[in-house]
Each structure stands twice: as structure tokens, then as C-alpha cells.
Design a protein that fits this description.
The chain is of the alpha/beta class. The protein has one domain (16-171, 180-370): TIM Barrel (Alpha-Beta Barrel). Helices cover 34% and strands 16% of the residues. The chain has helices at residues 61-69, 89-101, 106-113, 120-132, 146-156, 183-189, 202-209, 228-232, 238-256, 271-280, 289-292, 327-332, 344-355, 360-363, and strands at residues 4-7, 10-12, 21-24, 39-41, 44-46, 50-52, 73-77, 138-141, 160-164, 194-199, 215-218, 261-265, 284-287, 302-303, 319-320, 367-370. The strands form 5 sheets. The protein has an 8-stranded parallel beta barrel with strand order 6-7-8-9-10-11-12-13, surrounded by 5 helices. It has a two-stranded antiparallel sheet with strand order 1-2. Strand 6, helix 1 and strand 7 form a beta-alpha-beta unit. The longest helix has 19 residues, at 238-256. 50% of the residues are buried.
């Protein structure tokens, strides 16, 4: 790939965001009703390629059940408010009020509310709430607390497990006195299908795939509430990150015969964004802001990441998204605005239909074009 000269001593690749690319229609079209949006990971099949983000402002036991009813799945964070409080409604109301007012000390509020320790008994109870109501029980845990909470997570018997951090690697080197998390050993000893992430590069993706994970989350600093790019200076535009993970998946498939699912995480707000993520190589998407805008959302449109209240280096902001309708309306319409933020699955279905593809796997073969010129061209002279 062509390198761009940043300066006399450093080169770099040009990365592309989803806003800078478009799907190129093929020579045929098809009826939208003939398009299939389903996908499968391990033994679990879903009607739509949508995972509700593991943010407390997006996924509660109730919204996880509703997402399952609609054909997707919601990821409940086992370090969130739902496992720290018997009834977190008052805490969620305080966060919602702060998001509406704006300008407050959001970090201090979040730190206060998340200061209560996780109650391990609540992990099993929340999983049972979801499963008992007919939902797929998908839970998420951070890499830093995976070992300490794993016993309780496994005892809860979730259907799917996410090990999700801002940047997750298969190999962590440290001298802080703690036993490093060895994902390769951990994933292979678990019976539950595991999805790991996030990552944003080819090398990180292929190493995570080699842990035996069923899927990887791709995306760093791409979410609406994340400030990782500003605070740490790390990241990769989402279109390029997904494409790099796609290449890693092809190599891993050639080496092992095992297909690892790529899940685009964050940075998508419209049906067109989802379509472009799939064409870049994603099998499914994890969404936050679009689902936080649902009337069923736990915090009335307030959205924040689990890194927003870090004790020494917060990497997220509390923000509020405008209401868009029910979860059903956001996913399936009908839409009453032409901005692409409602009827996301209808938009994805139509994008596939006008491009001539009948399944998500086929749609991954569609061509892409770059619609925005790079600000710096290879070989450009100053």
C-alpha cells in the first residue's frame, strides 16, 4: 500500500472513514423483499446484524430482551450499573438529568455512581432476567476485570461473552505485579462463544483471531462518546480498520479453516454507514448512539462509555442524543425523516437490493469508491 510522507523521517498510510467511501452498485438490482439480513455466530442465529452496545445508556435487561425480539442482540456490561445496584433507575435518572443540562462535572458524577463495587450475585440475576423473558443473554466484561469476574460470569451461563476494552490485545506485557490476561489460554478453556476487542489494525486483528475467539470487535476511538483519539492520539478510521481486519480474517481462514466474525464497533449512525461497514468486511455492527435515541433507552438518550469515568485518565464524555422513536422504529421504521437515522434495516436492505446482492456475505463482495480526496496525496510537494 502506498505510503504518504509525513516528514523526511516518517511515513504513514492514508486511512478512510465511512464518510469518505460509497458502495458502487453492480450491473444488476433485485427486489428488496428478497434480501436476507441474517447472520450466525457459533450456534446462534440472528435476523439482523445489530448488537446493542455494552453501554449502560444503551443496553439494560429490558432493552436486551427487546433487541432479541426484534432479531438482534444486546450486550449487558457486567461492570455496569445493572450489576452494582439492585435498581439503578435513580442513578440513570441522575445521569439523564446531567446530560440534559450539560456543562456539569460529568466525570465526577459518573465516578461517584460507579464507585459502588459490582455485586456478583446480580450478574446471574440479570442474565436470568434476559433469558427468562426469551432474550439472548450476551454479557460484556473488560479485559482488566475478566479474571476476577470470570467465575461469576461463567456461573451465570450467558449465551455469548464479550471481552471488550478500548484497545484489547492477545498479549499484554506489564510489570505492575498483576498476572497478565492471556486471552489465548482463556478463550480456549471457555465453552461459551467469545467475542474480543477492540482492535484497529491487521496485526492486532489476526492475533485476536488466533486466540480462538468466535468474533472480534473492530473500532478504536470511533464511537460518538469516545475521546480516545484526543486523549491518547490512537485510532484508525473505521473503514480502513474493518478492511484491515477483513484481510486478517482471510489469512486466518487460509491458515486454519476457521472463519472469525468481524463486528464493526461504533461510529455508525445511519443505514448507509452500516451498509458501508458490511462492504468493508463486517459481518455485523455494534451500535450505541442510534439505539440510545430509542424511547426504551435506559437513560433517556444519555450516552457514555465505560472509559468516561476512569480514575486517572477518563476517555469519554457524557452526551445526549435526540430521541428518534422506538427501537422498532429505529431499526425497521417507518421513517418520517430523510436523514437515515430511522429504519436502519430498511436502508441496509435497500442498499443491498439496488447493488444487486441478496445476503450479507454476498454484499461484502461489492465494490467501493473513495468519495472524498485525501488532504495529503502520496508524493505531494509542499
Amino acid at each position: 500500500m502506498t505510503e504518504i510522507e509525513i516528514g523526511m523521517g516518517k511515513d504513514g498510510r492514508r486511512g478512510y472513514s465511512l464518510d469518505e467511501i460509497a458502495v458502487l452498485p453492480s450491473r444488476r438490482t433485485r427486489a428488496a423483499d428478497d434480501v436476507e439480513l441474517g447472520w450466525q455466530i457459533d450456534a446462534y442465529s440472528f435476523d439482523i446484524p445489530v448488537i446493542g452496545s455494552d453501554s449502560d445508556g444503551v443496553t439494560s435487561p429490558a432493552t436486551a430482551v427487546e433487541l432479541s425480539r426484534l432479531g438482534g442482540v444486546g450486550a449487558l456490561h457486567v461492570e455496569g450499573l445493572w450489576t452494582r445496584y439492585e435498581d439503578p433507575t435513580p442513578q440513570l435518572e441522575r445521569i439523564a438529568a446531567a446530560a440534559e443540562q450539560g456543562g456539569g462535572d460529568d466525570v465526577a458524577l459518573l465516578r461517584e455512581l460507579y464507585d459502588r463495587p459490582v455485586d456478583p450475585d446480580l450478574i446471574g440475576r440479570r442474565v436470568e432476567e434476559i433469558r427468562g423473558a426469551g432474550g439472548t443473554a450476551c454479557v460484556s466484561v473488560s479485559p482488566a476485570h475478566t479474571e476476577s469476574l470470570l467465575e461469576h460470569v461463567i456461573a451465570a451461563e450467558p449465551d455469548l461473552l464479550l471481552i471488550h476494552g478500548t484497545v484489547t490485545s492477545a498479549e499484554h506485557i506489564g510489570s505492575d505485579g498483576h498476572e497478565p490476561l492471556d486471552l489465548k489460554q482463556l478463550v480456549r478453556r471457555l465453552e461459551v462463544p467469545v467475542i474480543v476487542g477492540g482492535c484497529a489494525s491487521y496485526q492486532a486483528a489476526i492475533h485476536l483471531m488466533r486466540t480462538g475467539a468466535a468474533g472480534i470487535l473492530v473500532g478504536v476511538a470511533s464511537g460518538a462518546s469516545s475521546t480516545t483519539a484526543q486523549v491518547l492520539g490512537v485510532g484508525n478510521p473505521l473503514a480502513t480498520a474493518i478492511a484491515d481486519a477483513r484481510a486478517a480474517r482471510m489469512r486466518h481462514l487460509d491458515e486454519t479453516g476457521v472463519y472469525v466474525h468481524v463486528i464493526a464497533d461504533g461510529g455508525m449512525s445511519t443505514g448507509g454507514d452500516i451498509a458501508k461497514a458490511v462492504v468493508c468486511g463486517a459481518d455485523a455492527v455494534m451500535m450505541a448512539a442510534p439505539l440510545a435515541a430509542a424511547t426504551e433507552a435506559p437513560a433517556r438518550g444519555a450516552l457514555w462509555s465505560m472509559g468516561a469515568f476512569h480514575r486517572t485518565l477518563p476517555r469519554g464524555r457524557l452526551r445526549r442524543v435526540a430521541p428518534q422513536g422506538s427501537l422498532s422504529e429505529i431499526l425497521f421504521g417507518p421513517a418520517d425523516r430523510p436523514d437515515g437515522r430511522t429504519n436502519l434495516m430498511g436502508a441496509l436492505r435497500r442498499s443491498m437490493a439496488v447493488s444487486g446482492y441478496g445476503t450479507l456475505k454476498e454484499f461484502q463482495k461489492a465494490e467501493l469508491v473513495v468519495t472524498a480526496p485525501p488532504s495529503v496525496r502520496p508524493g505531494a510537494q509542499s
